[in-house]
Amino acid sequence: WANTKTDSTAPEQELLCIFGTGDLGRSLGQRLLHSGYRVVYGSRRPHSCGPLPQGAQAMSHEAAAQSASLVFLCIHREHYDFLETLAPQLQGKVLVDVSNNLKKNLYPEANAECLQRLIPGAYVVKAFNTLSAWALQNGPSDANRQVYLCGNGAEAKQAVAEVATKLGFAALDRGSLSAAKELEDFPLQLFPEWRMPLYVAVGLTAFIFVYVVIRDVVYAYVEQGEDNSFRIMVSLANKVFPIVSLIMLSLCYLPGVIAGFIQLYRGTKYRRFPDWLDRWMLCRKQLGLVALGFAFLHMVYTLIIPIRYYVIFWGSNRTSVFDTTTAWRSDSYYSMGILGFGLFLLLGITSLPSVSNALSWREFSFIQSKLGYLTVFFCTFHTYLYGWDKFLRTYKWYMPPAYMLSLVLPSVLIVLKLLLLLPCVDRSLTRIRQGWERTDTQDGSEKPLLT
Amino acid sequence: WANTKTDSTAPEQELLCIFGTGDLGRSLGQRLLHSGYRVVYGSRRPHSCGPLPQGAQAMSHEAAAQSASLVFLCIHREHYDFLETLAPQLQGKVLVDVSNNLKKNLYPEANAECLQRLIPGAYVVKAFNTLSAWALQNGPSDANRQVYLCGNGAEAKQAVAEVATKLGFAALDRGSLSAAKELEDFPLQLFPEWRMPLYVAVGLTAFIFVYVVIRDVVYAYVEQGEDNSFRIMVSLANKVFPIVSLIMLSLCYLPGVIAGFIQLYRGTKYRRFPDWLDRWMLCRKQLGLVALGFAFLHMVYTLIIPIRYYVIFWGSNRTSVFDTTTAWRSDSYYSMGILGFGLFLLLGITSLPSVSNALSWREFSFIQSKLGYLTVFFCTFHTYLYGWDKFLRTYKWYMPPAYMLSLVLPSVLIVLKLLLLLPCVDRSLTRIRQGWERTDTQDGSEKPLLT
Amino acid sequence: WANTKTDSTAPEQELLCIFGTGDLGRSLGQRLLHSGYRVVYGSRRPHSCGPLPQGAQAMSHEAAAQSASLVFLCIHREHYDFLETLAPQLQGKVLVDVSNNLKKNLYPEANAECLQRLIPGAYVVKAFNTLSAWALQNGPSDANRQVYLCGNGAEAKQAVAEVATKLGFAALDRGSLSAAKELEDFPLQLFPEWRMPLYVAVGLTAFIFVYVVIRDVVYAYVEQGEDNSFRIMVSLANKVFPIVSLIMLSLCYLPGVIAGFIQLYRGTKYRRFPDWLDRWMLCRKQLGLVALGFAFLHMVYTLIIPIRYYVIFWGSNRTSVFDTTTAWRSDSYYSMGILGFGLFLLLGITSLPSVSNALSWREFSFIQSKLGYLTVFFCTFHTYLYGWDKFLRTYKWYMPPAYMLSLVLPSVLIVLKLLLLLPCVDRSLTRIRQGWERTDTQDGSEKPLLT
Q: What number of H helices and E strands is found in chain A?
């Protein structure tokens, strides 16, 4: 049997070497073995280096290094020094540095760069460091499929990329070794793309909160001398949440409209947007989700109104006569709010990775843009109905009611969007987005496909 | 080093050719290179065709075509004509057509078929067109892993399927080149499987809405001359939503029961169901999710009742004496509704791709069927409790109250399901579903495994 | 063309054999063909064995077995007997047993073991049985990517693992053939990791329910002779849900704290935890999600209070004078509850497979631990505010109000957590978790990397 076996798969039995027999080293070896490689471990004490995956053998670092053309370094940076002694054996080999640090900027230079400095004769490639031992053990899953790599030798990177692909990962080249620092920071970063949206949210919340406190609590205290500070916990919170939510929702759709106007102005889609716009567009999803969170709080806070002690006590101040218009208004006001929230929720659900993955590009853009603008409209209309007729009345200390502040941005957004939807404008924008350029000089094979 | 490298992976260094250096062409080349292929680009201006992925080279179309046995066409259909001049070089090659169109039915015949007509001597295979440049760049993710392909040459398709597999995709053969049109429509379609459920939803909503408007608003206006049109926005909406939701929920479970009866009648599971039933069963998930949406709206609309101006104004009409039975009834009514909604939500969550993927088949069917029917029961019971004693009373213009309409289908469904659960019936149905046939003639090795 | 094609991929054209032409056999063959294998089917009637995937051929079992070194058995266990006659041809081959049973413990010994007994000369490997024909047809998706395998021959397992990897799956070695029984039970198990949390939930619910029934209903009936049994459906349910939810939430975070103390005491993270703690920690996610479910019910049950007949009838008992403190308290009470629930929801969302996959390890632990403890704090504080001043009053039959029971565990949890957060304690714990040991004897290369 052995021979049938051998010659059937012999050509791919490449030998790889791993330095370090820790969690990661062992998991990596396991996966390599399962993917049809032969694996040899380099260890200080080849005969007592703990349990190794079945099929792998352990040798001295020297022997191991010599035997393979590709060496994985699964060891701490603090222990790199001993590699210097192996310089001759590692001459011309591919060294894959998978190490990480405990903190950012622990060292001035990236581990991989320090390694390259130690062994100038080797081709150092930074790779696999974003994967956990766990991810290796269980094979690639949807999220940790990407293997980022960088290095100075093109052929070396190529070799590592092939190994990654064979292991079932998707290799992504991040350029020269100078990108190593960035790769080493990946596992340490904490929601980078959420930072900006959260700052905006906190800033807005703080501002609106102070605004309503002054307008509703301080004003009442100073002018009428009554203390309704207790309204802070629910009544005022429930003014802050919807306002922040609506503003952030429009912040999430504004950049798209701006981009449209820029493309119209430039007459092409192939020139990059200004950086601030790029960055803004990249965090639209996060802006939207934060806004959804605030909308959710607004809904629940609204629903508990009737069970509040304060409300139960004072009851509702009834007017003498039932007014159908008011009934219409209050009911439409609630309906708009609920429908808007429902759509908003739908947007949130479709931005779940697994759901958005399952959508075709056309479907995704339909939901996120068409339904998105419908949501904006519902929520804005909801707020207008709330304002109703007390729009230009009820100023206190020359401060307009807070909800009026929240109406500025969405109103602007809707107007701009309507401009873009004018048949003539829409037509030329569509053509631009389909690759057409006002002054078209390229030959076809260079026009990107619509995919 | 070079030579170790070479001979270790030499056998797999297959050379592939790509026509077109646009977004898609470049991304595809990148991924191919990372997967261990050599890549050559065919271009009109090999020396000025913009940035190419590192490691790939560019040649004239002729030279490129000659060098490889497999050619990817990443160019617009409008530019196919120049290929005719390459017919000799493309003779006997595999041409992979990855092109898409901007609209459906832009051309009478599929791009791939037109291509085959232009170069009869080549083996045209339609493939990769459902993938975006983005998906190629970042490697396969859970959703866009499938690569659909079709073509007339079995060997050619085989070759393309192998490339796809090596790139980490899963190849799915869709038959001969005549399927190309269908594949080219994939990226353009908009929620095909949602269409039917949405039509049903809209139709039902419209009908029920008109029904309740006539019964509650028009009737009151004509008979008592009072205008309660304002009730449309919330009161009536909140009658329509639960009714549509309940009907669609039962529509989601009905086909399963019907299928059961058909299998019982036929005594086998190996004969296909009638088309209408197949199509119905294929959109059960969508039916359920739409129903969930309506249930959600119903819940929120119910919860805002006490803060409505109308309700606050008229308050509640109290009877003179507190009736424990009524208290029991109203509370159970609410409980049933909430528990039903809770279960419904659970069903919705488990039908999220990533969640249902994580379930074993047995677990998924347990939730979707067992818990599903429990949900149906709760919701139906909830509605019966709502009706309570005013069942055969309160007709207006001979129209029964709307909620009674919603009770027909679920009641039928529950009865049918109970029939299927009768021990004797259940036993034989189970045996049929385990592959047993009333007249069993096959030998074991042809009976499908229960996996 | 043929020859270019051939020599380009010839080296990988390994031939594999499949016994059984059922659903699974056919799907498996298809996938193998697409991944670049040649496939031959073994069948009783090679010429009338129904449709086979294009490119595969069918032979007699004997011929098929002889032709390949690796044979997949896609047939029912009941039909294994005929294999005995093939013993000579199967001598020294790898037999991959993919069979499953309809029930657990249908047979005393695992299918694979029985197979090994029948053909002692072959290398039996249990594998692929956890995959459905459907999963094979459509290629690996995120959830069913793992292929578990076990067997006695290391080389044989290696060969199967390679096939699995080439098919795009991730092979996981489960050891010797004695593990086959376990693998064969996988597709049959029903939420094993949910069992314990659900038992706990049911047990707690039952206990608390009885407790409140005695305290609120029975007591009132015996002492004041009034029947408020109707309160069971909502009022009492809404006492049980939050209590169970809070207790289970703290049960979800308690093991982490305990583990911390154990590590501190041992001064290392490399020694295994006691089994009970391991098992407890493994079902933390489930504990949390069940708790979330109960919290959701609690929220909705609370929101319907004002529309209950009972409440509407008796209205609210107003005190003579409006008390700001009470207003503050009740509002903060609601706010805490809502914010706690909001955070809780966030925890639930991030534990969706696709979401948690998209998070870096650091991000995941930030949310699940930092935000998790914040949730615990909010919910506990919410309950304390509910108790407010009627803490050591209102005993009935010496039974404290139910909510007090729910406060014990979370309070203990919070205290313990605060202890762990003391700078000195925290520092040494962090060092331990970074691989440091109180008595460090290992050399660096054996210290696991922080990945």
A: 20, 8
